[in-house]
Write a structure and sequence with these properties.
Elements lengths: L4 E10 L2 E7 L8 H9 L9 E6 L8 E7 L9 H15 L3 E6 L2 E10 L5 E6 L4 E9 L2 E7 L3 E6 L7 H9 L9 E9 L2 E8 L3 E3 L3 H13 L7 E5 L2 E8 L1 E18 L6
Parallel strand pairs: 2-3, 4-5, 10-11, 12-14
Antiparallel strand pairs: 1-2, 1-16, 3-4, 5-6, 6-7, 7-16, 8-9, 9-10, 11-12, 12-13, 14-15, 15-16
């Protein structure tokens, strides 16, 4: 008889961008992509935008290592909101206020700012040098700013969101100029220090917020003269804060939702 494997997880969200986190020692598998698809399925799995594999082994310049997988099984270089979720677990378990997490985009430094009575953790994360690759571009016939935030970002300045931006985002994600696909943000200037953003994430589709997307959109808005540093990014899940001081720093929340076991007995696809 085939007995389902029990995969422990903690569910967290960073500004309603939700992730399931499992410790590497608890996952005796190598086919992480198929497990990510199964566990992230919102109907037959636990449900999340992504699954994080966290390894608490310390290195010479980091406190832990994380890999993140999108709900379609693809593995992005880094997730800003996901890294804050991993940082919450490390900070809670090891009582650390300053953390270094190794990601596919290098070691990211985070600083714990506060913990609310409801156990919402707020971190400032050094996103590194978020680089404008092309300040004026055209992608799928839309005005665009191409940004490297450790992962590919395509920021689209818009006057409003009264159009089918989801369909546009899906097309831009897979545009020919992005051989490895791209994250997409649609940004609207509100005032000199505020932008409003909608997100279409590579491998996950529409998300309530995005850490790298918010960072990329803020840097794109400043590059275009639509905003000035610091920038408040209004996401559908609430505001995130971005400041640019050589590197780009993102401040936002992370919160635990649940702990449990995923009964992994077969591959479930969307």
């Amino acid at each position: 008889m085939n007995t389902p494997m029990k995969i422990p997880f903690t569910k967290l969200h960073g500004a309603k961008n939700d992730f399931l986190v499992s410790h590497a020692a608890d996952v005796p598998l190598t086919d992480f992509q198929e497990l990510a698809i199964a566990i992230c399925n919102r109907y037959t799995g636990v449900g999340a935008d992504g699954w994080i594999l966290l390894d608490g082994t310390e290195g010479p310049d980091y406190d832990a290592t994380m890999r993140v997988f999108n709900s379609d099984g693809s593995e992005p270089e880094v997730s800003g909101n996901g890294t804050r979720c991993a940082a919450l677990l490390i900070s809670r378990d090891q009582a650390l206020d300053s953390l270094r997490i190794r990601t596919g985009a290098g070691v990211k430094h985070l600083r714990l700012i506060s913990v609310s009575p409801k156990q919402e953790y707020r971190f400032e994360m050094n996103m590194g040098h978020v680089r404008v690759v092309e300040a004026h571009s055209t992608v799928e016939r839309m005005d665009a700013v191409i940004v490297d935030a450790g992962n590919p970002q395509c920021a689209i300045p818009v006057a409003d969101f009264d159009f089918d931006w989801r369909t546009a985002g899906a097309a831009i994600e897979r545009a020919n100029r992005f051989p490895n696909r791209s994250n997409v943000s649609f940004l609207r200037a509100v005032d000199r220090h505020t932008i409003e953003v909608r997100f279409w994430e590579r491998g996950a589709g529409e998300t309530n917020s995005s850490g790298t997307g918010s960072s990329g959109a803020a840097v794109a808005a400043v590059a275009r003269g639509l905003a000035e540093d610091p920038v408040t990014v209004l996401t559908p899940a609430g505001p995130l804060s971005v400041r640019i001081d050589g590197d780009t720093y993102l401040t936002g929340p992370a919160e635990c939702v649940a702990d449990g076991f995923f009964h992994y007995g077969k591959i479930i696809t969307k």
